[in-house]
Design goal:
Length: 118
């Protein structure tokens, strides 16, 4: 099992960009999905984007074309590039590692705040 540390959140104006980073304490190998989720005040946590061990990606409809998830396996890091940010993107963003094989585990980071406001 690994530990996760997220970084890169902050305050940005509408239309701006941020890049979130999710660093794991060790290599994540095998069959896994890593992803970013977000939770706005008063709302449930929702999927933003995921990437699998073979690089397949999936995005929520409202971030398609604006956000890009990528990974650097050599640095044990997953990134979320967020462009054209909107006020409704304001939330705490959480990184998740869901390893299925060998040895299943599911780990969440502590979250990083993203605020989009003028």
């Amino acid at each position: 099992q690994v530990r996760i540390v997220e970084s890169g959140g902050g305050l940005v104006q509408p239309g701006g960009s941020l890049r979130l980073s999710c660093a794991t304490s060790g290599s994540v190998t095998g069959l896994y999905t890593m992803g970013w989720y977000r939770q706005a005040p008063g709302k449930q946590r929702e999927l933003v984007a995921t990437i699998t061990n073979i690089g397949n990606t999936n995005y929520a409809d409202d971030v398609k074309g604006r956000f890009t998830i990528s990974k650097d396996s050599a640095k044990n890091t997953v990134f979320l590039q967020m462009n054209s940010l909107k006020a409704e993107d304001t939330a705490v963003y959480y990184c998740n590692v869901d390893r299925r094989f060998p040895g299943a585990y599911n780990v969440w980071g502590q979250g990083t705040q993203v605020t989009v406001s003028s």
